[in-house]
Amino acid sequence: LLLRSFSSPSLPFLLILCFNSRRNHLPRSTRNPATMNNTPHFVFGILGNAFALFLFLAPTITFKRIIKNRTTEEFSGVPYVMTLLNCLLSAWYGLPFVSKGNLLVTTINGTGAAIEIVYVLLFLVFAPKKVKAKIGSLFAAVLSVFAVIALVSLFALHGNTRKLFCGTAATVFSIIMYASPLSIMRLVIKTKSVEFMPFFLSLFVFLCGTSWFVFGLLGGDPFIAIPNGFGCGLGLMQLILYFIYRNHKGSNIAEKESAMEMGSQKKPKQGGNHTHGNGNDDPGAGGPPTAINESPV
């Protein structure tokens, strides 16, 4: 139910209208784009870039394992493809001819898009034929969706209409991506174990969401403030859960129900030489989608 609420396009749209309504009552000087380029605004943008880059690079441990074993095992490529779409939309929104004062949004999301493309291509190289076809089709669909949104906004829309169209698209996908850790949070509550919710990833999700939330507030931009406000709140919830259950040993349900990091297609097998649980030395494996699958902006 919570995921549906976050995924509903009407919710961010209504929040954006409320944000703009309040913003229109501010003194004219505070609404001037020139006043947005102040030092705090820039500093929080730089911090957001740094925290987001950490989240983008977190899956490199997973891909080191994939390359070493020359197989994607039970890893899923879907989160990487969807994160790519989110990065492309956010990078496009941050361009000067779409929105003013958001170039730092474009820099980090452009970097993130390049990183995600590398992840997707590596996944396609080592994935089984059936999985490769599925991820390849999804990859093509994501590029097509982005191309349509970019072309429509570039040639059919102008001014505030262009910003509203691109910003709404980026906001909806950002909220959906930020809501993805709800499944791991449910697992933590059910098993009373934080084994599959690393502290530092949860911390960086909170810091990243907070940085971009403040960046959006200082810049008077609801399309940045609203989704990252959700991200900040969800990151805080993860940290609270971590401190509640950090000393609990939990139950073996965690191993039975957990998926691999960044999403799994199957539950891990029991018995035999099982390497996805506690005995795995690879810190990038053995956990379901956590803070890695986040929208940095």
Automatic annotation (TrEMBL):
GO MF entries: sugar transmembrane transporter activity
Record organism: Linum tenue
Residues annotated as transmembrane: 42-63, 75-95, 107-126, 138-157, 169-189, 196-218, 224-245
Keyword Hydrolase: no
Described purpose of this protein according to its UniProt entry: Mediates both low-affinity uptake and efflux of sugar across the membrane.
Membrane topology note: Multi-pass membrane protein
UniProt superkingdom: Eukaryota
Protein name in UniProt: Bidirectional sugar transporter SWEET
Subcellular localization(s) per the UniProt record: Cell membrane
GO cellular component: plasma membrane
Biased composition (Low complexity): 271-283
InterPro entries: SWEET, SWEET_rpt
